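Researcher: Here's a chain I'd like modeled. Treat it as a single chain, no partners, no ligands.
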Amino acid sequence: MDLSLSVHRVSLRLTETVRSSRGEIDSVDTCVVALTHGGVVAYGEGTPVEYDGVTAEDVARAIESGGPDLLGHDLGDPRAALDRVERWDAPAGARMALDGALHDWIGKAARRPTWNVLGTPREIGPTVYTIGIASPGEAARAVRDAPPVGAFKVKVGGSDDIEVLAAVRRATPLPIRIDANEAWDLDLARALTPRLRALGIQLIEQPFPRAAIDDYHRYREVPGRLPVVLDEGCTDVASVHAAGRHSDGVVVKLCKAGGVRGARRVMEAARRAGLTVLLSCMCESELAISQAALLAPLADHIDLDGHLYLREPPFRGLGLEDGRIVLGKAPGLGVTPRAAFPPDPDRRRP
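Model: Modeled as a single isolated chain. Structure tokens:
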């Protein structure tokens, strides 16, 4: 039962331009792996972290060059293969893709949903819907037009953050979290905190640059401060230990941690350290969201909304009911491709 592996670069187009303090995006590039073994075709998605300088080309090149030998010819022991992927010295997105394909294969080989094999609930959440940097009127319209989620995340870092957040609060009674993507400084955070508290803001992600550790320590002394969770400032278990000294929690993404296995270790380390755990994503397809959803029981907050912004989703199978993500019932990760990802003879094991 020989194993074949192919890599497909996919451009995910968004329904509208999303703005953050980092800039604007209307599409993102990702990689989908198709793994074929024992008559089973399994898929995994690997997302490059472009703000760290990693591209979809980097992810694809790593999988093409190292993936076949890493997986070998036989998945008789898929958990050993997962161990090898976790230890692989490759971009996190490459590990995420192979890890996801293996989790899909495990469920499909058992003819059961992977969430059922692992004992994960089928319904997870409530999840958020993210509002990019916008005018107050645009932000309020985005809330009113949003799918039926359980909370909102608002990107901040503009000149009228408070006015935007006030408009969002008038438009919804649901919890609101904010994400500055490193755009604030200590003086701004200190000045805005009382007004943010008055609006009932739940927490803030990465308010200051990663290197501004002193600002994080000093913000902890601000009366009535918001809880702070680190995204860009936390990628692995080692950074969790550092995060505990100047934050209240961490944002965990498969694309940073290298897949389900790596993200699980980060989440478990954070919980042992008494930190809040927020399970999040990039703009990704339902395939990647289904991979991340396997870790939902370890999270305090679920921010898995990346698939809700896609114009032409390449996978389908997830539901959304009463603010909660409903995982698919199909074997494996529970999602199916809308179009075939055929093996590429130039990118498969001979």
